[in-house]
């Protein structure tokens, strides 16, 4: 078994990381109880979903660390969950503004700035888009499509994997892994783009709701769970991370990614408890809120 093959430092490391995962779960449960009691029902489930992202990723990483053969399933589970969280984060920003109707009324003559990351941050020539029901709808579609198609693609990957056609680290153009990964990457970029557009518009209005540190935590989870893991896996497949019998390079890369995620998600869980637990004043009426400098049609 895995535990039998570990030396004393290895056992201590695994025990410490498992304890950190358990503490993260307990912190989240305590925070969920607080949110359930103190937060209005319209926002309750969305905030609980967002707070659950870090503990869920930590838990799946811990399971993958102890049971190496489950890594594919745990990674897919974390990916599906976070795809839903991205959509929930967009909906949370809308809810914090008072809902769709109130948001449209507040920014009646405003515009969305679409020259933002990760898709169009360099395309400065793109026009600003008026804030209407249609543009608001397409932003929600941008995140909702990821929450729908990511599970479908994951299910397709598992079906191909059970048939022996899908190899996670085989990025050959003839294999399905490369094309499925590219498609998921494109869907991810569009979803993050939609969230970035909305955040850029409401960050001043929701400053009293602590939206900037909340968005920073969300961005950290995106970078650590996707970019960091991808870079480590690439290093492992290119043998930059050397093998250490009985572990191959890819197995060691997977272990390193999982152990880093457990520590990072533990810290994010603790910080999220502080950020989301603060009490905030209600938003000021629309006529008392200053708009972005670019929208001159509204008067503070």
UniProtKB/TrEMBL annotation:
GO cellular component: membrane
Record flagged with keyword Lipoprotein: no
Signal peptide per UniProt: none
Source organism phylogeny: Eukaryota, Metazoa, Chordata, Craniata, Vertebrata
Transmembrane domains' residue ranges: 12-34, 46-67, 73-91, 137-161, 176-195, 215-236, 256-276
Membrane-protein topology: Multi-pass membrane protein
Localization: Membrane
Originating gene: Slc51a_1
The entry's keywords: Membrane, Transmembrane, Transmembrane helix
Gene source species: Ploceus nigricollis
Annotated protein name in UniProt: OSTA protein
PANTHER family referenced in this protein's UniProt entry, alphabetically: ORGANIC SOLUTE TRANSPORTER-RELATED
Pfam families for the chain: Solute_trans_a (PF03619)
Superkingdom of the organism of origin: Eukaryota
Primary subcellular site in the record, as a coarse category: membrane
């Amino acid at each position: 078994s895995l535990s039998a093959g570990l030396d004393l430092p290895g056992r201590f490391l695994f025990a410490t990381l498992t304890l950190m995962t358990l503490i993260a779960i307990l912190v989240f449960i305590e925070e969920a109880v607080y949110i359930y009691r103190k937060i209005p029902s319209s926002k309750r489930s969305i905030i609980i979903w967002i707070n659950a992202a870090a503990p869920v990723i930590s838990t799946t990483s811990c399971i993958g660390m102890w049971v190496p053969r489950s890594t594919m399933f745990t990674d897919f589970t974390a990916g599906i969950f976070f795809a839903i969280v991205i959509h929930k984060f967009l909906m949370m920003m809308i809810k914090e503004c008072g809902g769709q109707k109130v948001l449209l009324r507040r920014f009646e003559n405003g515009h969305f700035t679409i020259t933002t990351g990760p898709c169009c941050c360099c395309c400065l020539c793109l026009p600003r888009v008026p804030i209407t029901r249609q543009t608001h709808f397409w932003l929600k579609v941008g995140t909702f499509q990821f929450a729908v198609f990511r599970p479908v693609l994951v299910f397709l990957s598992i079906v191909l994997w059970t048939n022996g056609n899908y190899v996670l680290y085989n990025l050959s153009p003839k294999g399905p892994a490369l094309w499925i990964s590219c498609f998921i990457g494109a869907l991810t970029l569009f979803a993050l783009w939609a969230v970035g557009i909305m955040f850029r518009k409401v960050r001043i209005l929701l400053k009293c709701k602590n939206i900037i540190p909340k968005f920073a935590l969300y961005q950290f989870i995106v970078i650590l769970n996707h970019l960091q893991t991808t870079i480590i896996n690439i290093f492992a497949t290119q043998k930059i991370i050397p093998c250490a019998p009985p572990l191959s390079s890819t197995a060691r890369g997977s272990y390193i990614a999982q152990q880093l995620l457990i520590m990072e998600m533990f810290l994010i869980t603790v910080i999220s408890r502080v950020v989301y637990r603060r009490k905030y004043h209600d938003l000021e009426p629309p006529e008392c809120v200053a708009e972005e400098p670019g929208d001159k049609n509204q008067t503070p």
